[in-house]
Amino acid sequence: MTSVPQSGIDLWADDVLVDPYPAYRALRELGEVVYLTHSKLYALTGYDVIKDALADPTRFSSAQGVGFNDGVNRALQGTSLASDPPEHTPLRAALSENLTPRALRGLGEQIKANAQALVARLVKRPSFDAIDDIARRFPIGVVADLVGFQGEARANMLRWGQAAMEVIGPMNQRTAENFPVAGELYGHCSQITQDALTPGSVGWGVFEAERKGIVPEGAARHIIHQYLGAGLDTTLAAIGNTVALFGRFPEEFAKVRDDLSLVPSAFNEVLRYYSPVHVWSRVATQDVEVGNVKIPGGSRIAIILGAGNHDPRHYKDPEVFDVTRNPIDHLSFGSGLPTS
Ligand code: HEM
């Protein structure tokens, strides 16, 4: 057993958030496990150790939440995000059942029609802002329709969704400033009733699952809170990152324009290249050995998805943005735990 390398890097410092990849490289070069002295956290930096940890909830648990401060971890209680099997299984199944291709068929047509209408409007303008007019606008409508939100909730979704992700990190100024806004979302969801949601929507289906006893009583509101917290900022970042990367690498964009069958591969590469969620968390249930390092039981662990996605031991030339790479094994969706 070797002693754990240490680093003073603060993963949530503004300059690291703006361009985290040099920091990730420095951490990876120190070791697959590094102790972050600023945040007092163990961090996993390599692709293989991250993949293994995400697949093993018996040693790397989500039950105490997946954020880095007590407030957010309390708010996540009752959701699939803050649970391990067997409690996780029905919560996740309610999600999967409502998101099957069959359940989403009608919504898929609607999403396509919305996308075409948005593009038709935008191409008539001399210029537009890709972040405000596409990356922010488009997912709001999709997630609102998916969950079945109407009225006040739709108008607040962008503020709420962004704040929900901003409060995942350790308690710093940014986290503190976002808590009141994230609290509005929590408050709204804790009051929500099935009849406030569009019949047949995914949110409506989750209430049905509660009524049939498929998820525990009271879980539907938590799950709906989670959809909005998890579904908006992530998609917004993914679409914004697509535009940014196509702008930065026009020759790769040209390949996709010439061959639209590359779209799925290119999108996987966008998710690998710029992870929408950079850092996620687990707690060690016991003393665990990772690489040659011992992490004490009870430690909160930072799982740096963005660092694993650029690990040269797993991806050849990870700094190259290659729309033909199709990295379907990227880490950006976290564990994707089996539901049975
Ligand atoms: C590009 C888009 C997205 C990215 C990058 C993303 C990323 C993630 C990550 C990193 C996790 C954590 C998994 C873990 O703890 O191991 C997660 C879980 C989750 N996400 Fe997403 N997500 C995206 C889109 C969405 C959307 C659109 C929704 C729904 C509206 C959604 C709902 C959820 C839910 C419910 C969970 C918890 C799943 C579970 O507990 O097993 N996500 N996502």
Model description:
With 340 residues, the chain is an alpha/beta fold. The protein contains 14 helices and eight strands. It has a single domain, classed as Cytochrome p450, CATH 1.10.630. Strands 1-2-3-8-5-4 form a six-stranded mixed sheet. A two-stranded antiparallel ribbon has the order 6-7. A hairpin with a 2-residue loop joins strand 6 (288-290) and strand 7. It is globular, with a radius of gyration of 20 Å. The two termini are 35 Å apart. The mean pLDDT is 92.
Provide a quick synopsis of the model.
The protein is an alpha/beta fold and 340 residues long.
**CATH fold-level label:** Cytochrome p450
Spatial strand arrangement across the major sheet: 1-2-3-8-5-4
Measured by DSSP, the beta-strand proportion falls in: 5-15%
pLDDT averaged over residues: 92
The sequence of SSEs as H and E is EHHEEHEHHHHHHHHHHEEEEH
Q: Which class of secondary structure composition applies to the elements? A: alpha/beta
- Give the biggest beta sheet: 6 strands, mixed
Bound ligands, each once? protoporphyrin IX containing FE
- DSSP strand tally: 8
**Quick one: CATH class?**
Mainly Alpha
Low-confidence stretches: none
Q: Work out the radius of gyration.
A: 20 Å
Residues in helices, as a percent range: 40-55%
| Total count of domains | 1
Number of helices: 14
CATH level-four homologous superfamily name: Cytochrome P450
Using the 3D structure, state the CATH architecture: Orthogonal Bundle
Give the terminus-to-terminus CA distance: 35 Å
Principal-axes shape call: globular
